[in-house]
Design brief:
4-stranded antiparallel sheet; elongated
Length: about 230
């Protein structure tokens, strides 16, 4: 699936509707449309930073944080008198982690640490070195820093920009004919934004989850018949 910069909606707006948006308003309108559609293209990132003054600045493309770790073995000692118990615990934890690494894409070595989030920063109770943040980051254009969108989202954004630009012109000129035309563009925007929220392709993994949600609990039970979707 090819992704495009939101800036491509500027030329598409001219090509589809013959409307040239105001350059100073275009980015705000495009981002408003992107937020209303609500779809985001992300990938999993691992970011290592230093906590200074109990604060860690997050990368600008952070969307959702999965976990935050400090470089300390996540092991519990069961005896306060036997030093070998600590060595055994560390060895066992390392063995368990070696299996997690192959199974869980979110797995990260280290101990989970408590934090508060706000204003693009993480807040801790003390300073930590080499804190790792596992997060979902929005895919963005390298030049503009704006999020990347697929074909359907790009068309919907161009339609919203055309609608908003024409509506603004009709309000300024107090022209009822222009305002009537904006209703056609608004209906087109609603149709295309709904279409943009539907994935372009459903993988077998996606279908498996859908069938699990819609079918009875024993859909994959051994020796059981697969139940039809209800």
């Amino acid at each position: 699936m090819e992704l495009h910069s939101i800036n491509s909606a500027y030329g598409l707006c001219e090509s589809l509707y013959g409307i040239t948006p105001n350059e100073s308003d275009f980015e705000d309108l495009a981002m408003e449309a992107w937020n209303r559609i609500g779809t985001k293209h992300t990938r999993l990132y691992r970011y290592i930073g230093q906590v200074e003054n109990k604060t860690l600045q997050l990368p600008c493309n952070t969307d959702v944080i999965e976990s935050v770790h400090i470089p300390v073995p996540d092991a519990q000692v069961t005896s306060n008198s036997n030093y070998n118990n600590w060595n055994d615990t560390i060895w066992i934890e390392g063995y368990i982690d070696s299996w997690k690494r192959l199974e869980d894409p979110y797995w990260t070595r280290g101990k989970l640490v408590k934090y508060d989030e706000g204003n693009g920063e993480l807040y801790f109770s003390r300073d930590y070195p080499n804190v790792m943040v596992v997060y979902h980051g929005i895919l963005a254009d390298d030049e503009s820093g704006l999020p990347l969108v697929n074909d359907k989202e790009l068309t919907a954004i161009a339609t919203f920009v055309a609608y908003a630009s024409l509506y603004k012109e009709g309000i300024k000129k107090r022209n009822p004919d222009i305002l009537k035309m904006t209703q056609l563009l608004k209906d087109d925007w609603l149709r295309k934004s709904n279409a943009a929220r539907i994935p372009e392709h459903l993988s077998q993994n996606d279908m498996d989850q859908i069938l699990d949600a819609k079918s009875s609990w024993n859909r994959k039970g051994y020796g059981k018949a697969f139940k039809p979707i209800q």
